[in-house]
Amino acid sequence: FDPRHYLGTHGFGFPKTGPHRLRFLLESVKDLRETLKKKGSTLVVRKGKPEDVVRDMIAQLGSVSAVAFQEEVREI
């Protein structure tokens, strides 16, 4: 979870993620984790800036050969 997603928007100061959307996200992540657990897998969830969290996870794992990202489309 990127803390920047819970700050105000640039133009109007409204939260990017309000309480209802946050609740939906938390419930979705919980459900995904439970589904993966039933299949013998797991879900790693972290809080922080992705550029920091991913770097730290790569350092912790030690032998990462590839990392894939999806960039968020930004409105102008």
Automatic annotation (TrEMBL):
<dbReference type="InterPro" id="IPR014729">
    <property type="entry name" value="Rossmann-like_a/b/a_fold"/>
</dbReference>
<dbReference type="GO" id="GO:0071949">
    <property type="term" value="F:FAD binding"/>
</dbReference>
<dbReference type="GO" id="GO:0003684">
    <property type="term" value="F:damaged DNA binding"/>
</dbReference>
<dbReference type="GO" id="GO:0003904">
    <property type="term" value="F:deoxyribodipyrimidine photo-lyase activity"/>
</dbReference>
<keyword id="KW-0157">Chromophore</keyword>
<dbReference type="InterPro" id="IPR036155">
    <property type="entry name" value="Crypto/Photolyase_N_sf"/>
</dbReference>
<dbReference type="InterPro" id="IPR006050">
    <property type="entry name" value="DNA_photolyase_N"/>
</dbReference>
<dbReference type="Pfam" id="PF00875">
    <property type="entry name" value="DNA_photolyase"/>
</dbReference>
<protein>
    <submittedName>
        <fullName>CRYD protein</fullName>
    </submittedName>
</protein>
<feature type="domain" description="Photolyase/cryptochrome alpha/beta">
    <location>
        <begin position="1"/>
        <end position="76"/>
    </location>
</feature>
<dbReference type="InterPro" id="IPR002081">
    <property type="entry name" value="Cryptochrome/DNA_photolyase_1"/>
</dbReference>
<dbReference type="GO" id="GO:0000719">
    <property type="term" value="P:photoreactive repair"/>
</dbReference>
